[in-house]
UniProtKB/TrEMBL annotation:
Name recorded for this polypeptide: Tyrosine-type recombinase/integrase
Molecular-function GO terms, alphabetical: DNA binding
InterPro entries: Arm-DNA-bind_5, CB, DNA_brk_join_enz, Integrase-like_cat_sf, Integrase_catalytic, Integrase_recombinase_N, SAM-like_dom, Tyrosine_recombinase_XerCD
Chain ranges of the Core-binding (CB) domain: 103-187
Organism, as annotated: Flagellimonas sediminis
PROSITE patterns recorded: CB, TYR_RECOMBINASE
Similarity-based family: Belongs to the 'phage' integrase family.
UniProt KW DNA-binding keyword: yes
Lineage start: Bacteria, Pseudomonadati, Bacteroidota, Flavobacteriia, Flavobacteriales
Coiled coil start-end: none
Pfam entry (one): Phage_integrase
């Protein structure tokens, strides 16, 4: 059924006995009303012509106002019907009162952050909120629209991030990714047309800068395994690091959340914190003596193997994140001491366990298998990641040229 918008007088008087002048929006026999803020006595309303009678002292002004309101509403309705087939009288009213074209970047950003918070993606919430604030501080305008975020604006913003904020190239790219995400959402929701999209070929291109990933080699791993003159804390941190390494560079947040109940049938079964994927890995022989060191503190099958999360409020995502960050900072502090005792010059951190697995794997393991071990969603991610550690072809090519 066709939709319609008409001027009318709603028969619900206010305390002064005057009736509101409204626009009645009808779609599929369902109506909603948009108030103009003007009220008149019933005797001044001409129902046949849908106008204020000339006998009203402000008839000309009120009728002009109604004509303007009606024209604006019909213009919005025409635009809405050309873009969508499925809409209601309420959606028409909402578009008239709050046009999507006037939705600000901050409004879209606030809704996005609220969604992250509701889904308990607290780490993502914190990092993306900081990136969004970079743009708002640069613009100095909380009412910035997406139409204003054009290519020229973004180029100035990039210069600001690199110059005044002194962000690394990777941090600049991460900030642009958040803006691109919000821009894509705004296009999908009809806030702005795709023709204004500032990203892509010959516009703002988002390309990750190449970074060097340094991993330990076999000799360095064996040096860590062989250490015996360690303090209790250093020994614990080595255990956690080796546990991560032996299981294909498991992320620290996943390692400290492993429970005794996750190990059965000689395998480790767990759900990744980053993307909620379920994983099942054979438990390497080298892991068994490591977890054996913690059996005395085991209170139940549902208890954590490592102690870092035992006192965390698991119902509070922010407390879980805080405990994870504190644990990572502590681990990295003691790992530097472990590296000194093992006479390793490279910076030893929890994340290097992942790089070390990649370094030793090199090009000896098929990429599809590495994709499973790394828990990557896309094989492209695995290819790009492993490219940091696959050197045999280039080494052989170099030797062929210079060894004459």
């Amino acid at each position: 059924m066709a939709s319609s918008i008409k001027v009318t007088l709603r028969k619900k008087p206010n305390k002064q006995g005057e009736y509101p002048l409204v626009l009645r929006i009808t779609k599929d026999r369902r109506s909603t009303y948009l108030y103009t803020g003007q009220y008149i006595d019933l005797k001044y309303w001409d129902e046949t012509n849908r106008t204020v009678r000339k006998s009203h002292p402000n008839a000309v002004r009120l009728n002009n106002l109604l004509l303007v309101k009606l024209a604006e509403a019909n213009k919005t309705l025409l635009a809405l019907t050309s873009e969508k087939n499925d809409y209601s009288s309420q959606s028409i009213k909402k578009e008239i009162t709050t046009p999507l074209s006037k939705v600000t970047f901050k409004q879209m950003a606030d809704a996005y952050l609220e969604e992250l918070n509701a889904n308990k993606k607290i780490n993502r919430y914190n990092t993306d909120k900081a990136r969004i604030n970079h743009l708002l501080r640069f613009a100095q305008n909380n009412y910035l629209t997406f139409r204003e975020i054009d290519e020229a604006f973004l180029r100035r913003f990039i210069s600001y991030l690199k110059g005044e904020k002194k962000l690394s190239p990777r941090s600049v790219i991460n900030t642009l990714i958040v803006i691109r995400t919000l821009y894509n959402r705004s296009i999908k929701q009809g806030v702005i047309e795709r023709k204004h999209y500032p990203f892509g070929k010959d516009k703002i291109r988002i390309k990750f800068p190449e970074t060097e990933k340094v991993g330990l080699n076999k000799d360095e791993i064996q040096a860590i395994e062989a250490l015996d003159a360690l303090t209790a804390q250093e020994a614990h941190v080595r255990n956690v690091w080796l546990f991560s390494f032996y299981l294909a560079g498991m992320r620290v947040g996943d390692v400290i959340n492993i429970r005794w109940s996750d190990i059965y049938d000689g395998r480790l079964h767990y759900r990744m914190n980053k993307n909620a994927k379920l994983l099942s890995l054979k438990l390497p022989e080298k892991v068994i003596p490591i977890i054996g060191n913690y059996k005395e503190d085991k209170k139940s099958e549902d208890d954590f193997i490592f102690p870092e999360m035992k006192k965390a409020n698991l119902k509070n995502a922010r407390d879980v994140l805080a405990k994870t960050k504190t644990a990572t900072k502590k681990f990295n502090k003691y790992l530097s001491r472990v590296a000194d005792k093992a006479k390793i010059d490279k910076k030893l951190t929890m994340h290097i366990a992942r790089h070390s697995f990649g370094n030793i794997a090199g090009d000896a393991i098929p990429l599809q298998m590495l994709q499973k071990l790394y828990r990557h969603t896309s094989i492209t991610t695995t290819i790009n990641y492993q490219a940091n550690f696959m050197h045999q072809d280039t080494d052989d090519a170099l030797d062929k040229v210079i060894n004459f």
